[in-house]
Amino acid sequence: MKLDDIIISKAIIETYTKKLLDCLELDVAIVGAGPSGLTAAYFLAKDNKKVGVFERHLSVGGGMWGGGMMFNEIVIQEEGKKLLDEFDVRTHEFQPGYYTADAIECVSSITKSAIQAGTRIFNLITVEDVMLKNERVNGLVLNWSAVELANLHIDPLTIRAKYVIEATGHPTEVLKILEKKAGVKLKTPSGAVEGERPMWAEKGEKLIIENTKEVFPGVWVTGMAANAAFGSPRMGPIFGGMLLSGKVCAQRILSAL
Ligand code: 48F
Questions:
Q1: Ligand 1 atom 22: the closest Cα is on which residue?
Q2: How many domains does the chain have?
């Protein structure tokens, strides 16, 4: 068969456009394709919810690829291991209660599970603003990351969602946008992002579950962003909390939906 270059282009443009058009109205829009955002996406999509993930970078996986200090292995505790089993990631018991997993196998398997459950992931797209009406967030404002990188003056496009998940990790970008542009009060003790505290794996991993909640009408927070929002410690390269927070976030949103 002879290959036609134009058909190849047409196939990409038409298929991508259809995918994006289908995500203009979502049940849940997730900002950030790190481990927590991807896990939340998987459990929401598995329950037949319409989910889109928007990721600034070319690659998904956020801070998971590099394990700890570029040693690309992660550590996971008993509760988190069950989730890696569900994602078909192999784990190795290092000492009782401590498992290791290949960081690259983790990212690729979680991503594959999320996509095959029905999640649409859009990489190279930055969330630069939120849609806020009547004191509730009901959508996201998107632009190509290349526009941000090149500092071009180009207007964004908008999508609507019943709920937004803030899964941007340490910088809590969505919450910072709300604080800066809307001047609203978050449901945190001070009404603002409290900021993450220094490393303490044990405490950070415990608190992340209770910090996974609706932090502003329409906005749920998961993963490292949850601990940063509520002033809890970071936990470094142990990833059970990230995955469990993503799962709990999905379950709590499913109840709310
Ligand atoms: O940082 P990230 O991996 O967040 P996470 O799911 O996991 C945290 C761990 O990786 C690690 C840790 C474990 O102890 O603390 O850091 O909470 O993934 C966040 C993703 O969000 C993307 C960013 O590129 C990354 O892939 N992101 C951040 N801001 C935006 C964004 C934005 N404005 N628009 C789109 N994507």
A1: 32
A2: 1
